[in-house]
Amino acid sequence: MFAEKHFHPLSADSPGTHIAGVRSSVGPFRGVQAWFSGNSLNVGKDQVSYSHIYIGSGSENQVNYISAGWIINPGLYGDQRVWTFGFWKGKDGKGYYNTACSGFVQVSKVIPIVEPYDLKTGVPGWMRYSIHQDKNTGNWWITQLMKDAPNEDIGYWPKELFNLLDNGANMVGVGGVVQASRSGLSPPMGNGNLPNGGRQDSGIFTNIEVLNSNYKQRKMNSFRTDNLLDSDKCYGLRIGTVKPFHRTHLGFFFNYGGPGGISCGV
């Protein structure tokens, strides 16, 4: 399978990997969800750029992990289009994409786990994904949350694939990740802009919520969170703020991303 190092959930500890996002590690959590944009970007054959939500649990020498979102990965898909994806790492220690191996169970007949989108430059696509644990079966589902239509369950990862997720996940997070080329050139993240302008001028995650240990839905910042940004030379992270006594339909949100470049660090 494609190198799983691009999906390490704890830190950007692989050479050339850079991250910008928010994580909470005070679980157990039963799920995470967010609205987030996907954007057409110039990503080389040996580069990767993606935006995702994820859940995970780790021990001293093992990680169980589920991730889903938008990705541009010419080395995997053979083109520069934006694709939806699902990725998981279970008790066998290996990482798998989509339905490339037995594990993920596709249920929806209208929304596949992996699908290409021909997005125009500067015109984002939007998704609202939820990864959550079924209260009765313990399986982990991915659902497309709809604004004006019933939610669509895309499919699930059976609980038997994992050995550290029986009672929820210790960690949940959302954000962007890139993998540089062998020459050290890092690709764009988000929509390629640093989060220095308005809310729609860079990549954005909105309405970021979690399911707590009792399956109650809460804003992620109801819990202690960590801001993750390892290369402020090339990327940025700006947590959303709302003026006192003002309300927003964005919930807990942040802007992120940047152009990449040659001096982003190891």
TrEMBL record:
Short name of any one Pfam family annotated for the protein: Neprosin
Alphabetized PROSITE patterns for the sequence: NEPROSIN_PEP_CD
Occurrences of domain Neprosin PEP catalytic (ranges): 10-265
Name listed for the protein in its UniProt record: Neprosin PEP catalytic domain-containing protein
Organism in which the protein naturally occurs: Brassica oleracea (Wild cabbage)
Upper classification of the organism: Eukaryota, Viridiplantae, Streptophyta, Embryophyta, Tracheophyta
